[in-house]
Automatic annotation (TrEMBL):
Keywords: Cytoplasm, Methyltransferase, rRNA processing, S-adenosyl-L-methionine, Transferase
Top-rank lineage group of the source organism: Bacteria
CDD domains assigned to the protein according to its UniProt record, in alphabetical order: RsmI
GO cellular component: cytoplasm
Protein name: Ribosomal RNA small subunit methyltransferase I
Reactions catalysed: cytidine(1402) in 16S rRNA + S-adenosyl-L-methionine = 2'-O-methylcytidine(1402) in 16S rRNA + S-adenosyl-L-homocysteine + H(+)
Pfam families assigned to the protein according to its UniProt record, in alphabetical order: TP_methylase (PF00590)
Organism: Sharpea porci
Family: Belongs to the methyltransferase superfamily. RsmI family.
One MF term in the entry's GO annotations: rRNA (cytosine-2'-O-)-methyltransferase activity
Length: 282
């Protein structure tokens, strides 16, 4: 489990800075300040980003980070963080790590135990998603679960096979019960519990549900839970025929007994010896 208290440590930080999708006047003051104060800005397209920087009189050096150079850009950014420098990641427009290669960088930075901090303040769900370290897309925003346990259980049961990352909101006095039910119903998945986002006591806790339950009693503030999706399981194929009938069907089509057993074993994903033993019991 990794506990990141964003403003209570002095670790180098990767800031995820959303940029305006059209109207530059919507760019928040905090984002402008961060871009001025960091040591480097990692941009999806430096030619587009320079227009934004010029508009706000930002002169921070830029490096390129896009889908075609991540094998070079990610180690370079990690080296900057190791050297004690702070880096801001921006995309051409909108949230970094959604519909661009930022997610790979976020995971690499988390593995090196540096801070990853969202700069937005307007949308807790997306802020939590991009810094979670969990695959950011596709995702489902669920919001608040029901307050009563019976309905909450039904909701989680209905959601347990969702293979997409799921985002929930929760209040501090219900978080322990909610995580306990998640552990029972969803199994011990990886989650990110993000609390007090963008505030002084911002904390992002990344780990398995069981790990976070161990420290949940000390947690306060409004919370966002980002839950990894279910592992996709292939549906079991149900055969109407018995193994013996299946083998006899292929023998009737002209196959030898040996080849029919081999074919049935392949189709049913069984060992040949298992099919042979079952067939010769008759």
């Amino acid at each position: 489990m990794i506990r990141q208290k964003s403003f209570e440590n002095h670790k180098p930080t990767l800031y995820l800075v959303p940029t305006p999708i059209g109207n530059l006047s919507e760019f928040p003051e905090r984002a402008i300040q961060v871009l001025k104060e960091v040591d480097h800005i990692a941009a999806e397209d430096t030619r587009n980003t320079i227009k934004l920087l010029n508009h706000f009189d930002i002169h921070t050096p830029m490096i390129s980070h896009h889908e075609h150079n991540i094998n070079i850009a990610i180690p370079k950014i990690i080296d900057m963080l190791k050297a004690g420098e702070n880096v801001a990641l921006v995309s051409d427009a909108g949230y970094p790590a959604i519909s661009d290669p930022g997610a790979e960088l976020v995971k690499a930075v988390i593995e090196e135990n540096f801070n990853v901090v969202p700069i937005s303040g307007c949308n807790a769900a997306l802020d939590a998603l991009v810094v979670s370290g969990i695959t950011p897309q596709p995702f489902v925003f669920y919001g608040f679960l029901a307050h009563d346990d019976k309905t909450k259980k039904k909701e989680l049961e209905a959601n347990k096979n969702i293979t997409m990352t799921t985002i929930y909101y929760e209040a501090p006095h219900r978080i322990k019960k909610t995580l306990t039910l998640m552990l029972q119903i969803l199994d011990d998945r990886s989650i990110a519990l993000c609390r007090e986002l963008t505030k002084k006591h911002e904390e992002i806790i990344r780990g398995h549900i069981s790990e976070i339950l161990e420290i949940v009693d000390e947690l306060k503030g409004e919370m966002v839970i980002v839950v990894e999706g279910a592992t996709e399981v292939e549906e079991e194929v149900v055969f109407e025929q018995s193994i013996t009938e299946h083998v006899d069907e292929y023998i009737a089509k002209g196959m030898s007994t040996k080849d029919a057993i081999k074919e049935v074993a392949k189709i049913r994903n069984l060992g040949k010896n298992e099919v042979y033993a079952e067939y010769h019991k008759k």
